[in-house]
Design goal:
Elements (H helix, E strand, L loop, with lengths): L3 H15 L14 E5 L7 H9 L4 E5 L5 H9 L4 E6 L2 H11 L5 E4 L12 E7 L5 H7 E12 L5 H6 L20 H10 L3 E14 L2 H10 L9 H18 L2 E13 L2
Parallel strand pairs: 2-3, 2-5, 3-4, 5-6
Antiparallel strand pairs: 1-7, 6-8, 7-8
Helix pairs in contact: 1-8
Length: 265
């Protein structure tokens, strides 16, 4: 039996959790979730891709999400043969809606196997999606580039700690779980498969939540981060997190990304 204050918090969090999330439209969290830089960022993913797109006739955007960023890129720099893959079902309809009119072909994928013949593509890009370095190497033409921005295993670790759970590392189909996922591991893995590393950087910043509802909505919107997340399953932990907001007025979550441009010999 919950007291009135606890029930009010529960009802509020359920309402936040159930608020509609439209693909990658984060406007509901405007002013409630902000990025706080802790160091200068040494790369611009979009600018790097724009530069590369002007020199190729074919491009693949791996794990395109809803296709918004890729669609914007193709409108600015049309590429004759454009492709995208996506494995998250809710995103596929949006990706087709945005990319089909631009002449891009969207493939539904279940793993990191790419639906292309060997030595087919001139540019492969990947923003925050898993990939198999051997498979990317296979479909890329010699001398061409793979551009990726990745979220490391240190991103959002505090979320898992606050919820009393262990963060799991992802792996690609048929491969064991990675022992780590960071710039050092990723570049070593690419080198081991024969890639040449052209550029590499990493960046640390903080995601600041200004209320618990924003925190709950964020976790609902990215279900792969805490797959079993629900208000009921984690309510006791959410009560503890609410006390942090009451004490500090905010909740800071360290975040870590890295960037690589690799070339197929």
């Amino acid at each position: 039996m919950r007291d009135s204050n606890t029930q009010t918090l529960y009802d509020y969090l359920v309402s936040e959790y159930n608020h509609h999330f439209d693909y990658w439209d984060w406007s509901y969290l405007d002013g409630r979730r902000v990025d706080v830089a802790t160091q200068p960022k040494m790369w611009d993913y979009i600018r790097a891709v724009q530069t590369a797109m002007q020199q190729v006739q074919s491009i693949l955007d791996m794990r395109t999400g809803g296709g918004e960023k890729f669609a914007d890129l193709l409108r600015q720099y049309p590429v004759p043969h454009a492709y995208a893959t996506e494995g998250y079902a809710p995103n596929l309809a949006m990706a087709h809606r945005l990319l089909d009119p631009l002449g891009a072909t969207v493939y539904a994928v279940d793993d990191e196997t790419l639906p292309f013949a060997d030595n087919t593509l001139e540019l492969i890009i990947n923003r925050h999606g898993s990939y198999n370095p051997r498979e990317v190497l296979r479909v890329l033409k010699p001398g061409q580039h793979f551009i990726t921005q990745q979220v490391s295993d240190q991103a959002n670790v505090r979320i898992h700690e606050l919820l009393g759970r262990q963060k799991e590392l992802l792996s690609y189909e048929g491969a064991p779980h990675k022992s780590a996922w960071n710039l050092e591991y990723a570049t070593h893995e690419l080198h081991a498969h024969g890639w040449q590393i052209i550029e590499q950087h990493e960046h640390f910043h903080t995601t600041r939540f200004l209320d618990l509802g924003a925190f709950v909505y964020y976790l609902k919107a990215i279900p792969w981060e805490v797959p079993d997340f629900s208000i009921n399953a984690y309510f006791d932990k959410l009560i503890e997190i609410q006390r942090i907001f009451e004490r500090d007025g905010m909740l800071d979550i360290p975040f870590h990304t890295f960037f690589i441009i690799a070339r197929k010999p």
